[in-house]
Design goal:
GO cellular component, one term: plasma membrane
CATH architecture of the largest domain: Up-down Bundle
Mean pLDDT: 76
Distance between the termini: 37 Å
Pfam families: PqiA (PF04403)
Order of helices and strands: EEHEEHHHHEHH
Strand order of the largest sheet: 4-3-5
Structural class: mainly alpha
Number of strands: 5
Number of domains: 2
Strand content: 5-15%
Radius of gyration: 24 Å
Main location: membrane
Shape: elongated
InterPro entries: PqiA-like (IPR007498), PqiA-PqiB_transport (IPR051800)
CATH topology of the largest domain: Butyryl-CoA Dehydrogenase, subunit A, domain 3
Protein name: Paraquat-inducible protein A
Low-confidence stretches: 206-222
Largest sheet: 3 strands, antiparallel
Helix content: 40-55%
CATH class of the largest domain: Mainly Alpha
């Protein structure tokens, strides 16, 4: 099947900093415009992505079990975890803040864990399954990553609001630190994944008919 040549076949590489198409045959591999180091692919993409993802999963446990803030109202202080804070805000009628904290602290990390694990497993298995949809899934993970710090911002805003109104005092607790680490490592995991790995299978190995892939594993009955 006729197709235009690939960038790798022409020894071309886009600079990650300025986007210039650079010739990889020249030494050293640096962008001639901005001097940034050039990489045809993200180095050790799968290994680094798995490492960052597993680290974020480890930090996610204390982030949910340890208190994230201490609320002191009229002399009565109490520690709150992420989930207890969501329930407390909901019980006091602040359903909008409760919803933001739930989405940012529980739903978004959970979606990123599942999505990145799916991408990693399917790439390692060399799967042809839903490659276009998996590429869209990766872009979605990148998009929601920008909103991952909402929970930390909400805690800071609520603390400032309570102190401003002289209603009491709110202090951060160790759980917010672990949650910040979860956010950082999930973002590093998404940044380390190379979405081009989804399309790395040779075109001549791809089934011409999507139904052929299902038939390959079928054993004829006699």
């Amino acid at each position: 099947m006729n197709r235009p040549p690939l960038a790798s076949e022409l020894n071309l590489c886009l600079c990650h900093s300025c986007g210039m198409a650079c010739d990889m045959t020249e030494q050293p591999h640096e962008c001639e415009r901005c001097g940034a180091p050039l990489h045809a692919r993200k180095p050790d993409s799968l290994t680094r992505t798995w490492a960052y993802l597993l680290a974020s999963l480890v930090f996610y446990i204390p982030a949910n079990l340890l208190p994230v803030m201490n609320t002191s109202l009229f002399g009565n202080g109490s520690d709150s975890t992420i989930m207890s804070g969501v329930l407390e805000f909901w019980a006091h009628g602040a359903w909008d803040i409760a919803l933001i904290i739930f989405i940012a602290s529980i739903a978004v990390p959970g979606i990123k864990f599942v999505a990145l694990s799916l991408l990693l497993i399917t790439v390692q298995r060399g799967s042809f399954w839903a490659r276009k949809e998996r590429s869209r899934l990766y872009r979605f993970v990148e998009l929601i990553g920008y909103w991952s710090m909402l929970d930390v911002i909400v805690v800071a805003l609520v603390a400032a609001l309570v102190k401003f109104q002289a209603l009491g005092d709110i202090e951060p607790r160790p759980g917010i630190l672990f949650f910040g680490l979860v956010v950082v490592f999930t973002m590093l995991s998404a940044m380390s994944f190379d979405p081009r790995l989804i399309w790395d299978k040779e075109r001549d190995q791809e089934p011409e008919n999507p139904q052929d892939e299902e038939r390959m594993d079928e054993v004829p009955s006699h």
